[in-house]
Amino acid sequence: MTSRTRMMKTTLLSALFIVYVQAICDKELVRPLEWTGGSFEWPNLSTKALYKSSGRFIGKNNIATRAQIYKDDVIVAFPRYKPGIPVTLGKVCLKQRNCEAVISPFPDWSSQEEGNSAAFQSVVDLFIDNNEILWILDVGVVNTLNSPVRKSPPRVIAFNLRANKQARILDLSGLVAQASRLQYLAVEYAPDGRPFVYISDAATRSLLVFDVAGNRGYRVVLPKAVVGCGRRDVLYIALVQKGCGNNFIIFTYLSSPRIFSIRTDYLRAGSASGKIQDIGVKPNRAVILGTDLGSAIFFRYEGQSEIYRWDTNTPFLPANFVLVYKSDNCFLATQAVADLRRERMRVLESNFPDYVQDTVGCGATQKLSLMTGCL
Ligand SMILES: *[C@@H]1O[C@H](CO)[C@@H](O)[C@H](O)[C@H]1NC(C)=O
């Protein structure tokens, strides 16, 4: 064997090795993450035992409902619907080697302390923007399903992921009413580069708009025509980003028969009157799950496991709804989330209805799956 062929062989072998390693990594990234209850990474066993004995950790009360993906990590919200939720904002790596995924507090344990208003109290939604800022909606109220207790003002915390540090706290106290129920948030940058936060308030039939640079917010009240007939209804919002031209927010109440949109430049100008477009009739009650960060919206019908993709450039009609995913038995999606690094969509799903009815046994099963299944 000449040294040249030997060298070629070595090169070929190392190339094959790289492909092999890449395949292992990809396999890890394709496998769903799955866990039950609050599968947290504790500092040590005595801390866990202490949390358990004092009622600060009740495994079956923990459920992740919202997520965002940053590089190879998934940042997850565990709203404090019930007592015993030690971590309201967690992080789990997509590259898990164990069957049961392990969630660490994000950014640390001290940020999770219930009752300490300097820590997160109940995180209900998350949004990562193009500048690697994580926006965290903390409603400040815990035990929301049983006996709600306010622990801090409602607020949005901006966390700079690249610098790994908290950047801003937006106090929403002045924008809410006693009855407010803040549910979803989305963030965009105006053409002049100023960030704006949009938050749905189901109880006051409004969208809160926060001009971060100007440190001021206002409430845009929606017309009566947008409401449905449900008690304690849910107000979904989805930010559609057009790349060029105006972005808009698609919104609908769970129980409303119709779906609406408003251009975000109108929201930033502080007025909705005459600017809301009725874009169609929903075939059924629909749960808006998220977007692809572009013009597509993902949704499912209430209680149904099929997820549809609707390109908002087309009319809101069943002929334009593409079936893209179906959850396994007992699972329902609570979010469809973009995985930018791999240009894929993932689905956060759980047996949420069982959780609400307290019939989860050892704990809610939670799963983050690739939308398009295995390779
Ligand atoms: C367990 O971790 C907690 C929190 O970090 C610490 O205060 C405590 O000393 C640790 N206990 C043991 C036995 O290592």
TrEMBL record:
Keywords: Secreted, Signal. GO terms for cellular component: extracellular region. Residues 1-23 form the signal peptide. It is found in: Secreted. The keyword Signal applies. It comes from the Eukaryota. Pfam families: MRJP. Gene3D superfamilies: TolB, C-terminal domain (2.120.10.30). Belongs to the major royal jelly protein family. PANTHER family: IP19120P, PROTEIN YELLOW-RELATED. This is Bee-milk protein.
